[in-house]
Amino acid sequence: MGNENTIIMIRPDGKPGIMLPLTQYEAAKESIIEYFLTKSQGTIEEIISSAMNRLKDSHTEDLVSILSSVILDMEARDYITKLSYKNPIEYGLKVLHC
User: Fold this and answer.
1) Quick one: fold of 6-93?
2) How many Cα atoms sit within 13 Å of 44 on the Cβ side?
3) Is the N or the C terminus of the chain less surrounded, counting Cβ atoms within 10 Å?
């Protein structure tokens, strides 16, 4: 069960995702949003690479997995949207008030 210090992410297919400390989730989400402030779209690899550079001082293990999960959560919450469904899949920012 989650508490006010954690978030249970959701996936676009509606299934529950992983549980993550809220501070880690917010940091990952902000780094993803920062990517979209300079680019209108990007592949998941580009977004993760950019976010990892922004979070380079983070001592979080498996940062790629966390960022991938946060991207899926943001898609499920309708903050970002898939712009293409063929490889490489590209995402775009849907709303700025997330």
Assistant:
1) Arc Repressor Mutant, subunit A (1.10.10)
2) 19
3) N
